[in-house]
Amino acid sequence: MTETTRYSGAGLVHIKNPHLEAMDEDVLYHLDLGTKTHDLPAMFGDVKFVCVGGSPNRMRSFAQFMHKELGLEGDGEDLADICAGTDRYAMYRVGPVLSISHGMGIPSVSIMLHELIKLLHHAKCRDVTIIRIGTSGGLGVQAGSVVITDRAVDARFQPRFEQVVLGDVVVRGTDLDGGLVEELLACSEAIPDFPTLVGHTMCTYDFYEGQGRLDGALCSFSNEKKLQYLKRAHDAGVRNIEMESTAFAALCGLCGLRAAVVCVTLLDRLEGDQIRASHEVLQEYQQRPQRLVAAFIRRRLGLRAAAGNTRPSSD
Q: Which of 13, 30, 141, 253 is the most exposed place for a label (fewest CB within 10 A)?
């Protein structure tokens, strides 16, 4: 069975689950929120931008950065974690921006997205844009490059996300919003101090064998086979590799959310497997997609950059 992306003309977040309407209460367990315990429309109804990323610390840093970029009062240091009652994810609200961590890999991002999408639905949010901000391994691009994903593909270079549901394989499309890709690329022109490009992003189920690394606890292939595979991926248009984009694109698309993926590359996988850059260099790399997404949000809101602030803080 194949399910395809459908964007909503009314800007609403669609829940493709008829059982939810019959539920007296919906407990968003992993977010420590619920329809009876929280006034979700009051808390989130005017959210327009949702930014998600793996690390709780990184998403807190991004929220603090957006606090400055939006010109809000205070220094943003006392932002409260809305999901403080759980240790699974972290969530911060800054004006119309929601910043949420999703953990590492497809299972973790999938759980978060199911509950986030239900949250946006219950809150009656409209015209929401969701962007994954992350790190990745580059493919034929220099370390520190920012890749805007035009197509999320699986480890066979196909634009699909496969999930086993009740023993059957369900195939879902992984289309991303082409207009968002163009907008983000246009915003990058104002940030010339790092390279930004558009390319396919390959999503794998693990960091080591699934990405052709030679340095895991298990490895059954040669360096030659690894390079042959990575070069085939590059020839297919893949410019970076991570572990969330196909699930992210599939779930967001099916529920009517316009979505984008913006990741920085920490190394070129054609040159090696291990990430050897210094902590300081990696911190600066990780700020690059945040700066691009912040510029995009400011442009959408008709705001200029906050004076004297061009970078997120480092944890």
A: 30
